[in-house]
Amino acid sequence: MRAPDLLDRNPGAWREATRHPFLDAVRAGTMPAGSFQAWMAQDYLFAADLLVFQSLLLARAPRPDQAALAGGLVAVEAELGWFEGLAAKRGLGLGEARHPTTVAYRDFLIGLDRESYTAGIIALWALERAYLEAWRSAAPGHPDYREFVEHWTTPEFADYVTGLEESASSALEEGDEREQEQAETVFLEVTRLEKDFWEMAWTVAPQEPGSIV
To answer: Which of 121, 151, 154, 208 has the most crowded Cβ, counting Cβ within 10 A?
Structure first.
Protein backbone atom coordinates (compact mmCIF):
# COMPACT_ATOMS: atom_id res chain seq x y z
CA MET A 1 0.00 0.00 0.00
CA ARG A 2 1.11 3.52 -0.79
CA ALA A 3 0.04 6.73 0.92
CA PRO A 4 -2.39 7.87 -1.83
CA ASP A 5 -4.28 4.59 -1.42
CA LEU A 6 -5.54 5.96 1.89
CA LEU A 7 -7.27 8.77 0.02
CA ASP A 8 -8.94 6.33 -2.36
CA ARG A 9 -10.11 4.12 0.50
CA ASN A 10 -11.59 6.97 2.53
CA PRO A 11 -13.05 9.58 0.13
CA GLY A 12 -15.81 10.74 2.47
CA ALA A 13 -13.48 11.40 5.38
CA TRP A 14 -11.03 13.16 3.08
CA ARG A 15 -13.70 15.43 1.69
CA GLU A 16 -14.80 16.44 5.19
CA ALA A 17 -11.18 17.32 6.01
CA THR A 18 -10.65 19.49 2.94
CA ARG A 19 -14.05 21.06 2.17
CA HIS A 20 -15.90 23.20 4.66
CA PRO A 21 -18.12 26.32 4.78
CA PHE A 22 -15.18 28.12 6.41
CA LEU A 23 -13.18 27.66 3.20
CA ASP A 24 -16.17 28.61 1.06
CA ALA A 25 -16.40 31.83 3.07
CA VAL A 26 -12.70 32.53 2.47
CA ARG A 27 -13.37 32.27 -1.25
CA ALA A 28 -16.61 34.30 -1.20
CA GLY A 29 -15.81 36.86 1.50
CA THR A 30 -18.77 35.85 3.69
CA MET A 31 -16.84 35.02 6.84
CA PRO A 32 -18.75 35.55 10.11
CA ALA A 33 -17.11 38.28 12.16
CA GLY A 34 -14.56 36.82 14.52
CA SER A 35 -14.25 33.42 12.87
CA PHE A 36 -11.09 34.10 10.90
CA GLN A 37 -9.41 35.75 13.87
CA ALA A 38 -10.27 32.71 15.99
CA TRP A 39 -8.92 30.36 13.36
CA MET A 40 -5.72 32.38 12.99
CA ALA A 41 -5.02 32.39 16.74
CA GLN A 42 -5.59 28.65 17.02
CA ASP A 43 -3.63 27.81 13.87
CA TYR A 44 -0.70 29.74 15.29
CA LEU A 45 -0.82 27.53 18.37
CA PHE A 46 -1.16 24.46 16.17
CA ALA A 47 1.95 25.48 14.22
CA ALA A 48 3.89 25.72 17.49
CA ASP A 49 2.72 22.20 18.39
CA LEU A 50 3.60 20.96 14.90
CA LEU A 51 7.15 22.25 15.36
CA VAL A 52 7.53 20.04 18.44
CA PHE A 53 6.01 17.00 16.75
CA GLN A 54 8.15 17.37 13.66
CA SER A 55 11.30 17.80 15.75
CA LEU A 56 10.57 14.49 17.47
CA LEU A 57 9.83 12.81 14.16
CA LEU A 58 13.06 14.08 12.58
CA ALA A 59 15.05 12.65 15.48
CA ARG A 60 14.09 9.11 14.44
CA ALA A 61 13.70 9.53 10.69
CA PRO A 62 15.68 7.35 8.28
CA ARG A 63 18.44 9.15 6.44
CA PRO A 64 16.53 9.57 3.12
CA ASP A 65 13.73 11.46 4.89
CA GLN A 66 15.85 13.83 6.94
CA ALA A 67 16.27 16.61 4.38
CA ALA A 68 12.54 17.02 3.79
CA LEU A 69 11.72 16.94 7.49
CA ALA A 70 14.50 19.38 8.36
CA GLY A 71 13.32 21.73 5.63
CA GLY A 72 9.79 21.43 6.97
CA LEU A 73 10.98 22.42 10.43
CA VAL A 74 12.57 25.57 9.07
CA ALA A 75 9.35 26.36 7.19
CA VAL A 76 7.18 25.90 10.29
CA GLU A 77 9.43 28.19 12.32
CA ALA A 78 9.18 30.80 9.56
CA GLU A 79 5.41 30.31 9.55
CA LEU A 80 5.25 31.28 13.21
CA GLY A 81 7.12 34.48 12.41
CA TRP A 82 4.77 35.16 9.49
CA PHE A 83 1.77 34.81 11.77
CA GLU A 84 3.34 37.14 14.32
CA GLY A 85 4.03 39.76 11.68
CA LEU A 86 0.49 39.61 10.30
CA ALA A 87 -1.02 39.81 13.75
CA ALA A 88 1.06 42.87 14.60
CA LYS A 89 0.16 44.56 11.31
CA ARG A 90 -3.57 43.91 11.75
CA GLY A 91 -3.71 44.54 15.48
CA LEU A 92 -4.77 40.97 16.26
CA GLY A 93 -3.82 39.02 19.36
CA LEU A 94 -2.25 35.58 19.29
CA GLY A 95 -2.33 35.01 23.04
CA GLU A 96 -5.52 32.97 23.09
CA ALA A 97 -5.78 29.82 25.19
CA ARG A 98 -5.86 26.57 23.26
CA HIS A 99 -9.34 25.55 22.22
CA PRO A 100 -10.18 21.92 23.16
CA THR A 101 -9.90 21.00 19.47
CA THR A 102 -6.37 22.41 19.34
CA VAL A 103 -5.50 20.55 22.53
CA ALA A 104 -6.82 17.31 21.05
CA TYR A 105 -4.71 17.77 17.92
CA ARG A 106 -1.60 18.51 19.99
CA ASP A 107 -2.12 15.48 22.20
CA PHE A 108 -2.64 13.24 19.17
CA LEU A 109 0.55 14.44 17.48
CA ILE A 110 2.75 14.23 20.56
CA GLY A 111 1.33 10.79 21.33
CA LEU A 112 2.62 9.57 17.99
CA ASP A 113 6.15 9.73 19.37
CA ARG A 114 5.28 6.50 21.18
CA GLU A 115 4.17 4.86 17.94
CA SER A 116 6.02 3.71 14.85
CA TYR A 117 7.82 6.12 12.55
CA THR A 118 5.39 5.00 9.85
CA ALA A 119 2.47 6.32 11.88
CA GLY A 120 4.22 9.65 12.39
CA ILE A 121 5.16 10.25 8.76
CA ILE A 122 1.66 9.24 7.62
CA ALA A 123 0.17 11.79 10.01
CA LEU A 124 2.50 14.56 8.85
CA TRP A 125 1.86 13.85 5.18
CA ALA A 126 -1.91 13.63 5.70
CA LEU A 127 -2.23 16.89 7.62
CA GLU A 128 -0.02 18.83 5.20
CA ARG A 129 -1.79 17.44 2.13
CA ALA A 130 -5.17 18.20 3.71
CA TYR A 131 -4.02 21.76 4.35
CA LEU A 132 -2.84 22.19 0.77
CA GLU A 133 -6.04 20.82 -0.75
CA ALA A 134 -8.24 22.77 1.63
CA TRP A 135 -6.70 26.09 0.70
CA ARG A 136 -6.73 25.19 -2.97
CA SER A 137 -10.48 24.75 -2.61
CA ALA A 138 -10.69 28.37 -1.42
CA ALA A 139 -8.72 29.79 -4.37
CA PRO A 140 -8.40 32.45 -5.52
CA GLY A 141 -9.86 33.78 -2.28
CA HIS A 142 -11.75 36.96 -1.54
CA PRO A 143 -9.38 39.98 -1.58
CA ASP A 144 -9.51 40.12 2.23
CA TYR A 145 -8.09 36.61 2.43
CA ARG A 146 -6.18 36.17 -0.81
CA GLU A 147 -2.82 36.64 0.87
CA PHE A 148 -3.52 33.57 2.99
CA VAL A 149 -4.74 31.43 0.11
CA GLU A 150 -1.69 32.28 -1.97
CA HIS A 151 0.65 31.64 0.96
CA TRP A 152 -0.61 28.08 1.46
CA THR A 153 -0.89 27.03 -2.17
CA THR A 154 2.60 27.84 -3.43
CA PRO A 155 4.45 25.41 -5.72
CA GLU A 156 7.10 25.11 -3.00
CA PHE A 157 4.55 23.90 -0.47
CA ALA A 158 3.09 21.48 -3.03
CA ASP A 159 6.59 20.09 -3.68
CA TYR A 160 7.10 19.62 0.06
CA VAL A 161 3.84 17.67 0.31
CA THR A 162 4.92 15.50 -2.62
CA GLY A 163 8.18 14.74 -0.84
CA LEU A 164 6.33 13.76 2.31
CA GLU A 165 4.09 11.50 0.26
CA GLU A 166 7.13 9.68 -1.09
CA SER A 167 8.48 9.22 2.43
CA ALA A 168 5.12 8.04 3.74
CA SER A 169 4.73 5.59 0.86
CA SER A 170 8.20 4.16 1.42
CA ALA A 171 7.48 3.68 5.12
CA LEU A 172 4.20 1.93 4.31
CA GLU A 173 5.78 -0.38 1.76
CA GLU A 174 8.49 -1.38 4.21
CA GLY A 175 6.17 -1.68 7.19
CA ASP A 176 4.52 -4.82 8.47
CA GLU A 177 0.79 -5.54 8.48
CA ARG A 178 0.28 -3.95 11.89
CA GLU A 179 1.96 -0.72 10.77
CA GLN A 180 -0.21 -0.58 7.66
CA GLU A 181 -3.38 -1.05 9.71
CA GLN A 182 -2.23 1.60 12.16
CA ALA A 183 -1.50 3.97 9.28
CA GLU A 184 -5.14 3.92 8.23
CA THR A 185 -6.25 4.60 11.81
CA VAL A 186 -3.85 7.54 12.02
CA PHE A 187 -4.96 8.86 8.64
CA LEU A 188 -8.62 8.80 9.69
CA GLU A 189 -7.81 10.56 12.95
CA VAL A 190 -6.06 13.33 11.02
CA THR A 191 -9.10 13.78 8.78
CA ARG A 192 -11.36 14.00 11.82
CA LEU A 193 -9.15 16.56 13.54
CA GLU A 194 -8.85 18.65 10.37
CA LYS A 195 -12.63 18.72 10.01
CA ASP A 196 -13.02 19.64 13.69
CA PHE A 197 -10.49 22.46 13.33
CA TRP A 198 -12.43 24.14 10.51
CA GLU A 199 -15.65 23.65 12.46
CA MET A 200 -14.14 25.12 15.61
CA ALA A 201 -13.29 28.38 13.84
CA TRP A 202 -16.54 28.50 11.88
CA THR A 203 -18.78 28.22 14.92
CA VAL A 204 -16.82 30.30 17.40
CA ALA A 205 -18.43 33.63 16.48
CA PRO A 206 -21.72 33.23 14.58
CA GLN A 207 -22.27 36.91 13.80
CA GLU A 208 -22.77 39.02 10.71
CA PRO A 209 -20.33 38.55 7.81
CA GLY A 210 -17.19 40.56 8.33
CA SER A 211 -13.56 40.89 7.42
CA ILE A 212 -10.24 40.69 9.19
CA VAL A 213 -9.10 44.03 7.79
So the answer is: 121
